[in-house]
Amino acid sequence: LCRYQHIWNIDLCFRPAFLGGIMQATGNEPPGMLSKRGEYILKDIKRMGKYYQVPIQVSAEHLQRLLDKVPLSLGAMRFITAIDVTQPQFLEPVSREFWIRFWSQVSILQSQILVAAQAGLSSEQAQKLLEMVSSPAVKNRLRGTTDNAVKYGAFGMPAIVAHFNGEEHLFFGCDRIELLASIIGE
Questions:
Q1: Which of 7, 34, 47, 75 is deepest in the core (most CB within 10 A)?
Q2: Fold classified for 19-184
Q3: What pLDDT does residue 64 have?
């Protein structure tokens, strides 16, 4: 979507949401919970990384950490939510940096300060954001965006909601860009 936002002249708005909350609210199970599907996903993710030239390094243990009781992504989503509240101009670069770290560096979320620095924030800005992560305002905002995703029909991530000609269109997955293009006439 970032690649096409200027070509298609669309307004792209990132909305942090907590995948674990979406899965719980919808009763959905991660595809990796099915052993054969999990094996396939590992291979598919690596193929996609090679195709898109993204240095993805993923293992069964890495995917299992996604399913842990307190998933790695919760801290990242709270940090990204704090960015959204205070400095939304950094939302895309910080999201991108977390994504790259998550899929290419298994130790990803241990240094939110480093992620912020890579995205162009100062250490002072990052420290203030870290202080906000546990605040009720950030937790409630993330819960709200997660609830909104479910209201739009999300059952997993990535979920894309396109508002076009007065209608809302939900797309699930990174392989639906062509369908989105068709809806908006591109």
A1: 75
A2: Glutaredoxin (3.40.30)
A3: 67
